[in-house]
Write a structure and sequence with these properties.
The chain is built from 2 helices and 11 strands, in the order βββββββββββαα. It is α+β, with helices and mostly antiparallel strands. The longest helix has 19 residues. The protein is globular.
Length: about 160
């Protein structure tokens, strides 16, 4: 992957089946991290996020060794909509493809600073359905704690809530 490349991002279930897929552009490459930018081509209604407008920009941060990724959603006018954090296994890469296994728990952080942990019931169902190994369960819990602490300390990529 090189800067400017168009790639496909695949979110997968624990059994590797495809959950969802979208296109992004590579905007930054570090030794242990990758930043992508995508745009919602059409309006999406999400049960927890409400309506996401077409033209919403998603800046997506993936770290090679971390069990989470963080998306910063900006409205078409450039204002912060929210952050969306997936608890997931570290990403893997193919030719112009990034794959990650979504472990179901998500964190949404609103510009006013309100934090919501989502889909814990889905995690419980899938933990049993796919027989998540103990290490995966432990890493899921640790990753959730790390995301919440990172936000609490306003570490990258969480910016001051007034931005």
């Amino acid at each position: 992957m090189i800067l400017g490349d168009e790639i496909i991002v695949n979110s997968r279930r624990f059994d590797k089946s495809l959950k969802k897929s979208w296109n992004c552009r590579v905007t930054d490459i570090q030794s242990s991290a990758l930043t992508l930018v995508g745009e919602f081509a059409e309006e999406v209604t999400h049960p927890d996020l409400g309506t996401i407008e077409a033209g919403t920009v998603s800046t997506e941060y993936f770290w090679l060794g971390r069990w989470y990724n963080i998306f910063r959603f900006e409205r078409p006018d450039g204002t912060l909509r929210n952050w969306y954090c997936n608890i997931c296994m570290p990403p893997t890469f193919g030719v112009n493809v990034l794959d990650y296994v979504d472990l179901d728990i998500d964190v949404v952080i609103w510009p006013v600073g309100r934090v919501e942990v989502l889909d814990e019931d889905e995690y419980t169902r899938n933990r049993l359905r796919f027989a998540y190994p103990l290490e995966v369960q432990e890493m899921t819990n640790l990753a959730l704690q790390q995301v919440l602490e990172r936000h609490g300390r306003k570490e990258f990529p969480f910016f001051p809530v007034s931005s």
